[in-house]
Amino acid sequence: MNVVLSTLNSKFIHSSLALRYLKAYGEAHGQAYDIVEYTINMPVLHILGDITEHDIDVLGFACYIWNIEMTLHVVDMVKAVRPDIKIVLGGPEVSFTADELLERCPNIDYIVQGEGEEAFHALVTALQVGNDGLDPVIPGVRGRRDGSILGSLEAVEVSDLSSIPFPYTEEDMEDLEHKIIYYESSRGCPFSCQYCLSGNKNTVRFFPQERTLEELQWFIDHGVKHVKFVDRTFNCKKSHAMAIWQFICDHDNGVTNFHFEIAADILDEEEIALLKTMRPGLVQLEIGVQSTNDATITEIHRTMQLDRLKAVVRSIQEKENIHEHLDLIAGLPYEGYETFARSFDEIYALKPNQLQLGFLKVLKGSYMYEHATEYGLIYRSRPPYEVLKTNWLGFGEILRIRQ
Hints:
Blueprint: E1 3-9, H1 17-28, E2 33-39, H2 44-52, E3 58-62, H3 68-81, E4 86-90, H4 98-104, E5 110-112, H5 117-128, E6 141-145, E7 148-151, H6 170-175, E8 181-183, E9 186-188, E10 204-206, H7 209-221, E11 226-229, H8 238-250, E12 257-262, H9 269-276, E13 283-290, H10 294-299, H11 306-317, E14 323-330, H12 337-348, E15 354-359, H13 367-370, H14 372-375, E16 378-379, E17 387-389, H15 395-402
Parallel strand pairs: 1-2, 1-3, 3-4, 4-5, 8-11, 11-12, 12-13, 13-14, 14-15
Antiparallel strand pairs: 5-6, 6-7, 9-10, 16-17
């Protein structure tokens, strides 16, 4: 059975970690998958032509807010010319609305909900022996049979992350030479910010530390230019963060840069001291502030000590060796135009290397999605579901912030 994994990245420099995890897990269990990646800027007919050049039995797509509409268009076209191909969708954009998508899009055969390594492998195994994968139920897999939607009703997690092999190979290094390498040392988040999906279960699972250090050495030995950790709150466990930061400091090759998303207010003096010893350019930190308005922070269930965050940012800046990237979100509950202006001014005054202003995205499966009416959230009905109006912020004010 020929299995091809694909996605539409937002830009050429991006690569899909998810597809490589699926492939590595499949290979570890006797299944061979091919990967073909495209971008949302490519002509659809080019993508269709390339896909149909492959001999494919099962075609899987990783779906996100930036690619879902185009992915569904590609799926329809693939089915039109190759109706024999089984189409499987996975990823955060389809994990929480599987039935809705299966009802709306008849060309989707299956949806994998949640983390896909075990579920996708089990589905392929079932298809290989002539089973449709819906009876017995495979956790995380939802699909259709004779017009009925059947299968699992829940998004799943991989309980033992050590069962997932390292996702990169020597061959990958040739293909990804000019792209960002994505990597993770943990999954989940201990916090429960209501606009995000990562903290839905308030749990964090870690890959084995010794293995993580070996994999980081692999990146260093291969002279990878940029490794971006996708851990949602990298420093949520001090011993974990310290071990990795000390390792990359001790094994610095003078070339590789590592990007981490952190909660700055929980850094202590020992961690800050270690960061200050690093080569300029070795590490960059992305710090999510989102708002400085107390009522907003409380309402979105975000844990943040603002004064401590400011002190940490200023302390790290003293050595001028670490690139700091601070984030704000416009359109959160209890954040009006004036309070957002204060949030912006406070963070701008910190003089970060980069200040990123985003607009609330009402993600399917998030608390904000479930409570949109309560907050008066009017948002784009199509991806990326950005807010247009709230009980506290008018459409005209959102336009003004954009401008």
